[in-house]
Amino acid sequence: MSNPSDSWIFTATCPSLLGTVDVVTRFMAESHNYINEIHSFDDHVQSQFFIRIEFIPEKDDFSPEQFNGDFSSRAAPFEMNWALTPPWKKERVAILVSKFDHCLNDLLFRYRTGQLNIEVPVIISNHPDLEHLAQWHGIPYYHLPITAETKAQQEAQILALLDEYHIDLVVLARYMQVLSPEMCSALDGKAINIHHSLLPGFKGARPYHQAWEKGVKMVGATAHYVNNDLDEGPIITQGIQPVNHTDYPQSLISKGQDIERITLFNAVRYHIEKRVFLSGNRTVVFSN
Amino acid sequence: MSNPSDSWIFTATCPSLLGTVDVVTRFMAESHNYINEIHSFDDHVQSQFFIRIEFIPEKDDFSPEQFNGDFSSRAAPFEMNWALTPPWKKERVAILVSKFDHCLNDLLFRYRTGQLNIEVPVIISNHPDLEHLAQWHGIPYYHLPITAETKAQQEAQILALLDEYHIDLVVLARYMQVLSPEMCSALDGKAINIHHSLLPGFKGARPYHQAWEKGVKMVGATAHYVNNDLDEGPIITQGIQPVNHTDYPQSLISKGQDIERITLFNAVRYHIEKRVFLSGNRTVVFSN
Amino acid sequence: MSNPSDSWIFTATCPSLLGTVDVVTRFMAESHNYINEIHSFDDHVQSQFFIRIEFIPEKDDFSPEQFNGDFSSRAAPFEMNWALTPPWKKERVAILVSKFDHCLNDLLFRYRTGQLNIEVPVIISNHPDLEHLAQWHGIPYYHLPITAETKAQQEAQILALLDEYHIDLVVLARYMQVLSPEMCSALDGKAINIHHSLLPGFKGARPYHQAWEKGVKMVGATAHYVNNDLDEGPIITQGIQPVNHTDYPQSLISKGQDIERITLFNAVRYHIEKRVFLSGNRTVVFSN
Amino acid sequence: MSNPSDSWIFTATCPSLLGTVDVVTRFMAESHNYINEIHSFDDHVQSQFFIRIEFIPEKDDFSPEQFNGDFSSRAAPFEMNWALTPPWKKERVAILVSKFDHCLNDLLFRYRTGQLNIEVPVIISNHPDLEHLAQWHGIPYYHLPITAETKAQQEAQILALLDEYHIDLVVLARYMQVLSPEMCSALDGKAINIHHSLLPGFKGARPYHQAWEKGVKMVGATAHYVNNDLDEGPIITQGIQPVNHTDYPQSLISKGQDIERITLFNAVRYHIEKRVFLSGNRTVVFSN
To answer: Can you tell me which residues form the catalytic site (chains A, B, C, D) (predicted)?
Structure first.
């Protein structure tokens, strides 16, 4: 048996049709790729098929170019979109923050210790506060202040940095800024935000204060893709924390930190491990 | 030591002031009542004090009338409202249902086995479906159908039954009817509803369908007091259930049943054990 | 799209080898069976492969006999053991109980309302207490008292009943008797027990008392297959319940009931939906 | 109303007796100390009383010496042991580690951001690996290697450091060394260990490997006081993490990290907030 950490990941989606699994798994067998794990799902409402496979090539000269070339004629009749991710791939992640550091500290810890298999080439913030944390990890930190007047310009600077650093994924780790529609469009599907409530409850600003006003007995966090409707992007995962009458907004904020950072970590991990598929405004997540 | 199940329960609330605890506990000691457990809470925002005490009288001739009489002069300067609940008190609970039986079955099971220390003198429904369950438990079942035209009349019939059976608490165990403002007023503070979502998310009808549309990764249930604003009454307790992309509305409904019935049970238990206090539109719950 | 409740279930296991998925999915496609859902797992330590597929035949004249006949020559080189389960299959479940009724009540409720897709042709107990519950559900109830002297004979009676009623699965719903090694062997792999602790903690008798002595802050329940080593059979699923210093053994028993019955229900559901595979003394569970 | 963060904490324990609450709360009222929160518990088995009060002095010249002097004559008849903790008190915590840094990183983050109201004057390890983390936080780091031969000497060095730095509490943040009985005695009641299993399951070495062997579906962590019986000290709190068949020992180790660090954090917080009382080999924890 091979080591599962040598696994390539194959992901695909197409309209539901007889043979969608077979076309993939037959090709895997014929091209001598050993399947470690397979997840598939058929959305009966959308009539859409999703599949994720972890496989290990048994031939030493495995070539992704040849795989893609050979598979394309088989995929065509199914109108299948697919992607191959090599085991050594590390997504290049830009982290955007404001002043809160619990999510940033958590992501950097998991990055530093290898729990999160990513590169973090750049951290961007509208405040200077967290530069020391970036420095200690040897990561460039850009302080790009923002005002109503400079918003367009600041967002352009961010987009330029994402381009310069060849960023695959943007993580809004409590960035606390409402992105412009243009920025949302630019980041569509490649940015993950953590919102500190169980959406759709308590959208918008100060959700813990809203939660306290309402007297809820659970607070939570929602990690979702950014789209152009604030706090309405497709949800990847959610976490909860029981609270009680002794909590005031300040202690809700404090109690919520752990669930925020764990929820954000899970979402980033699912994303980089290619476990998340968009299905309309919903997600298919082959979690483990 | 005495048996804790012999405990009387003392509950009180008043504006925050120095000595609010002392006035109670001193009286307890002087009147030879042994305190088993004490919970207190000061709401700093409302400046309101809440206390719950379980105690065991050490004198055989303990008289609640004398307790109340003696305590009243001490309570007066604090404008304290208090109540005594004897260990043998069983609240008389009316259960209102429609066609779903998971909450009813659960409450009746706990009632029958003594886990829920209540009387259930009457079950009322707008449908005939669950009469067999009531019959098996030997509980009168009233089938009061409802239409838009007969709503006022039907609600009057219900109120008459609550009166006839000397009901202390009404439990809406998935009753599925929107109560009229008049009915809500009549039940204010003495009716508990279970809503099958994590309020304030997914108010109103078909919350599991709403949850599926939104693509959330958690569903939940909220037990709250009825007031005159639908699904907006003070929350007593909430429960959650993780879900995923393989769930359709039908399986959400099925998966949610356990959390609904446990959440409703907890709320009823907290209420009858005098653990719940209203504090504006929020609750103080001395849970255990 | 077809209705997923029309799904057949295909399960198989064999040694790990290139092509284990392909041999199944290719056959599915060629024989015009639409795959709704697929789970597979390769145990790298045991080098064993497990697969579970839900599929819908697209041909009206689907014949399981023909499926099995045609597939056998393909399965042979892989030494694959497989099984087909039709959508209309209801496992015949015998429930064994003593005096505690929370698990029995829960299973019967879910059976009666269709949440658990089983038949319950017989209930067997060493006490007469729960006969009324069986009667109300119209299920034969056998009271087979047991003493040290009559144990062998009583167990023989049980086995005879299991045979007479064509039982597929035995559920020990807090049966509270230690089965003889002979009985364990006879039930090997076809009986599920609920133990009221988080195994391997607190094996044996009175686990809640043991838990209280130890001062743990979590109690739990473990559903496992019966084998010939008491409380050591392969674990299917576990549940937990936080507790605290105010709990005495009696309240642990009461608090544990919900987690016991939900854990047992989940295990029975996983079993009848063919989601559980034995892998040595461990289980593979394709839960949903 | 005063700010709750100005609260003094009063804790006491004594044999159960009529008036144990009154003697405290009457004194509080008479000495003009405003009670924010009160928890009490009577252990019916041990006949022992426990109480924790948060209070705010209403007089500017509040003197703990005078409080203690005045209260002593009242406490005497009850054989009550009590302690006063001022709001500005920060416990001096020494952290002991080996090579794993997830717990250390977590504690230091919460210390640095004020979530954990402690001083960390010293970090001690038998390995040099984590010195950089200590350095970045400006905390002295002592690398004291240990072998079977040098164990007694190394432990003496540790004890000398605890003395030198006036340490109130020792936190074994995955220190991975079995302490000698002498060391255990020296630390009795003032050291907290995190064990990476749900005790009493999987005591001793490599609990995640044990858990994998057993095939459990939940792993957990247990924070407990150190006493002279390895992994048997009084449990403060426990946490759990569901796992499944796809987990190998390595992924259990990884998945368990979050629950280990949160469980350890909670235990430390409960301890420094004076929420934990010893009651034989069990604990009373007035958590919030």
So the answer is: 231
Mean pLDDT for back-to-back runs of 10 residues, chain A (288 residues)? 70 95 94 92 92 94 96 97 96 96 96 94 97 96 95 96 98 93 91 94 91 95 88 93 94 94 97 95 93
Interface predicted TM-score of the whole assembly (ipTM), two decimals: 0.92
Q: If you measure CA to CA, which chain C residue comes closest to D43?
A: C246
Nearest-neighbour CA in chain C from D73: distance (Å): 30
**D102 Cβ under 8 Å from any chain A Cβ:** yes
**CB proximity list for C189: less than 8 A, separation 6 or greater:** C225, C227, C278
D226/chain B closest Cα distance in angstroms: 28
Mean pLDDT of chain D: 94
CB-defined contacts C:D, below 8 A: 83
pLDDT of residue A3: 43
Q: Lay out the sheet containing C169-172: strands in order across.
A: C141-143, C118-125, C91-97, C169-172, C191-195, C218-225, C235-242
Cis preceding linkage at D200, omega within 30 = yes
Question: Across the interface, which of D214, D240, D245 has its CB nearest the CB of C284?
Answer: D245
The answer to whether the CB of C248 falls within 8 A of the CB of C212 is yes
CA distance B72 to chain D (A): 18
Token pair, residue D201, equals: 């399951």
Nearby residues of D277 by Cβ (< 8 Å), 6 or more positions away: D11, D13, D50, D52, D283, D284, D285
Question: How many Cα neighbours within 13 Å face the side chain of A180?
Answer: 16
Residues 107-166 of D with CB under 8 A from C: none
Contact B238 A216 (CB under 8 A): yes
pLDDT digits (tens, 9 = 90+) for D246-284: 999 999 999 999 999 999 999 999 999 999 999 989 999
Residue B183: CA count within 13 A, CB half-sphere: 20
SS3 assignment, position B263: helix
**Contact residues on chain C for D238, CB-CB shorter than 8 A:** 216-218
Residues C228-262: b if buried by 16+ CB within 10 A, e if exposed? eeebebbbbbbbbbbbebebbbebbbbbbbbbbbb
The domains found in chain D, sorted by start residue, are 4-85 (3.30.70.260), 91-285 (3.40.50.170)
The Cα–Cα gap between D218 and D215 comes to 9
What is the structure's pLDDT at D176?
A: 87
Question: Chain C neighbours among A 16-75 (CB < 8 Å)?
Answer: 16, 18-23, 25-26, 28-30, 32, 34-42, 44, 47, 58
Nearest CA of chain B to the CA of D46: how many Å? 10
Position D171 scores a pLDDT of 98
Which two structure tokens, joined as six digits, stand for A223?
């990690």
Query: What is the interface size between A and D, counted as CB pairs within 8 Å?
Result: 21
Cβ neighbors of A62 (< 8 A, separation 6 or more) are A8, A33
The per-residue pLDDT of chain B, averaged, comes to: 93
Residue C228 — very low, low, confident or very high, per pLDDT cuts 50/70/90?
A: confident
> Among residues D66, D176, D194, which one has the least CA distance to residue D126?
D176
